[in-house]
């Protein structure tokens, strides 16, 4: 097994590389932070610096050579940005990477999406996976929904590659550059952390390693007989694809 991890210099991607290397899995990691890439290389990963928004087919061919599983963690996750920026990073790059993965024989493609595509400024519990708001909350949510449609179309047209979509909620843990830093900024600015509904709201959170474990389960041979799928991840990963039916 050889896994390509995109977005490997960010929180989820870096945790994914560490998880795989601890299992002795061969890893090719890609990202834009070359300093972080050197640390990944010291773990035993093969680091390929790349910006997926600028990737061309010749680079993709080299990047995907010998890869049977791809974990697509790369994403533009800013709460602010232009439609063009989100489309370029989250939709177009995903489409091109998926097409190249199919062309070069990748067997499993795990795409990391986001439950932000559910958000409509109302409280929900036990949301169905196909729920969509009348209007997306921001460009990030819209672009992640669009990226899922890209994956769904690729899955329908290419049965030899198994696609899975995961929507981890509220990622946190080692190497976090998003959630904890924002909480720290809030603490610094306000002197406290404001809790949703004064602390009465139930909020799902996902530890990085739990999300990575779900990616691992979705990549196992026991899942080959299952159709391409999309799933959310609870804090205990009990809704990740294959978690119940494909344990070894």
Automatic annotation (TrEMBL):
Q: Which SUPFAM superfamilies match?
A: NAD(P)-binding Rossmann-fold domains
Range of residues in the leader sequence: none
Determine the domain of life of the protein's source.
Bacteria
Cite the NAD-dependent epimerase/dehydratase domain residue spans from the record: 3-220
The record's listing under PANTHER family reads: BIFUNCTIONAL POLYMYXIN RESISTANCE PROTEIN ARNA, NUCLEOSIDE-DIPHOSPHATE-SUGAR EPIMERASE
Q: What name does the UniProt record give this protein?
A: Short chain dehydrogenase
């Amino acid at each position: 097994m050889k896994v390509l991890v995109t977005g490997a210099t960010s929180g989820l991607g870096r945790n994914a590389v560490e998880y795989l290397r601890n299992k002795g899995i061969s890893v090719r990691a890609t990202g834009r932070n070359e300093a972080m890439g050197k640390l990944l290389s010291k773990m035993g990963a093969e680091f390929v610096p790349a910006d997926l928004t600028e990737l061309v087919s010749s680079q993709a061919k080299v990047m995907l050579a010998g890869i049977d599983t791809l974990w697509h963690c790369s994403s533009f996750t800013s709460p602010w940005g232009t439609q063009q920026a989100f489309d370029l990073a989250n939709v177009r790059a995903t489409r091109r990477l998926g097409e190249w993965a199919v062309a070069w024989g990748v067997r499993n493609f795990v795409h990391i999406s986001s439950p932000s595509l559910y958000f409509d400024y109302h409280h929900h519990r036990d949301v169905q996976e196909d729920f969509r708001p009348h209007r997306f909350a921001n460009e990030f949510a819209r672009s992640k929904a669009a990226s899922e449609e890209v994956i769904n179309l690729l899955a329908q047209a290419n049965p030899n590659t198994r696609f899975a979509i995961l929507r981890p909620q509220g990622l946190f843990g080692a190497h976090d550059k998003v959630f904890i830093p924002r909480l720290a900024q809030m603490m610094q600015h306000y002197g406290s952390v404001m809790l949703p509904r004064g602390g009465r709201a139930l909020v799902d959170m996902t530890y990085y390693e739990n999300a990575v474990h779900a990616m691992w389960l979705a990549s196992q041979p026991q899942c080959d007989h299952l159709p391409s799928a999309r799933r959310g991840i609870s804090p205990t990963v009990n809704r990740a694809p294959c978690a119940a039916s494909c344990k070894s």
